[in-house]
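As a warm-up, study this chain.
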Amino acid sequence: MDRDDPLEQRRHLLRLLLASGGAIAGSALLAPLVHAFGNVPKKLPPNQSIYDMRGRVTVDGKPASRSTPITANSKVQTASNSYVVFAVGQDAHLLRENSTLELSGADALADAMRLFTGRVLSVFGQRAAGKRMALQTTTATIGIRGTGVYMESEPDSSYVCTCYGAVALASSTNPEAREDIVSRHHDAPRYILANPEGGKLIIPAPMKNHTDEELMLIEEIVGRQAPIASAQGYSAPRRGY
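Now compare it with the structure written out below.
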């Protein structure tokens, strides 16, 4: 672990919390967890959007603080050495450094999300029948319902890991290049390329740059339990829809 990296410190302490099964009240672990996260992971109150942030974060072009509201039509940006963990309605996100994310929707429910650049880990609540959340990167469009997804968006390629759930993945340059993915636990990460490689625009990729612990954290802040429990070594049904 890089002990000078504040986000990695939080990941390490979160692993300790999850390994304890969450029942740590009164234990020696509670103090450092509260210090690192601001509070033990739990569902955010209705009037709070941001769970944790570090560095320079803007929401709709204005500097953000812990009390800044983020809506279903907000644009969120992070600078170098910055990140923000936040929730909008039944969805939650961890936006990493040097990233720009734009949401669109009505009231507290976003129905579209565009990652212009950077990296984001997201979990989404179950949509009503016939409704999908539409995600977009530089090279991909993704239709989802309730699921967990990690995305990276670069000028000539995108990375998409369906951490769990089902997505309809397609190239934004050639919609005929598409794949329907059902994943239980990071089963089918993909690169979506601007230019074909071996005649293909969608190719297999490794699982990288995100963790089960982070998924558990962002599910927790919207009142759900992730369908994975890496600390206990098993997969469990997702709760809270």
